């Protein structure tokens, strides 16, 4: 585990961080994402560990090529999605509300947790926005864990939960086939287990790693107990003090730590909304005292 000094001063000239809350969210000023170098990318990644969600405004020169380049500066890019894919560049997931196969994200979720190694970082670019609506909210899973009671922390620390992509993507996969993920073509979506509490591999902080979008149940407990545990954790995770909400504007780019957050895309618009996303490869989630799936 590599622990970084997440609040150390930035080394990129002109970079300024405008905090949106005590732990979650920041607007980064003074950086042109289309032309950043490795030093600026390091500053961005360090800021991401501290604030979990970063926003960059007026990035009008930031196109598909620049988005892929930025992803590769922050880590190794994954394919756009293990199942869905409708963009000429395999690294880009085109989220287009006018697509007949569009899958709505109006449920709290963490990206691709139904795979053994979910992405570490997601980068989302606003391409076409409706005149109103279509905001995205994020929840801070680490702040949520920190504010749990001691007995509930002790319970959550020792639990595994099952994540199942078939509820969202099973029919799509059967109809359209899948894509490459971790060097293999996805032909099925076997359920996977992850710790309910994930220890962040770079900061060592603990955070809740369950989400209504893909977590089906807690392992080793009854159905009633699983529902009670997950309902309590979801309600706690999405309390207002653990969340921020972003209203997208043309030229906006958002970057978030997929290991420390969940998010929700509002479906409160009637016009087309198009967003392009790339994701940075992650590792297999580990829990408290090294807890991991069997």
TrEMBL record:
<keyword id="KW-0479">Metal-binding</keyword>
<comment type="similarity">
    <text>Belongs to the TfdA dioxygenase family.</text>
</comment>
<keyword id="KW-0223">Dioxygenase</keyword>
<feature type="domain" description="TauD/TfdA-like">
    <location>
        <begin position="17"/>
        <end position="279"/>
    </location>
</feature>
<dbReference type="InterPro" id="IPR003819">
    <property type="entry name" value="TauD/TfdA-like"/>
</dbReference>
<protein>
    <submittedName>
        <fullName>Taurine dioxygenase</fullName>
    </submittedName>
</protein>
<keyword id="KW-0560">Oxidoreductase</keyword>
<dbReference type="InterPro" id="IPR042098">
    <property type="entry name" value="TauD-like_sf"/>
</dbReference>
<keyword id="KW-0408">Iron</keyword>
<dbReference type="InterPro" id="IPR051323">
    <property type="entry name" value="AtsK-like"/>
</dbReference>
<dbReference type="GO" id="GO:0051213">
    <property type="term" value="F:dioxygenase activity"/>
</dbReference>
<dbReference type="Pfam" id="PF02668">
    <property type="entry name" value="TauD"/>
</dbReference>
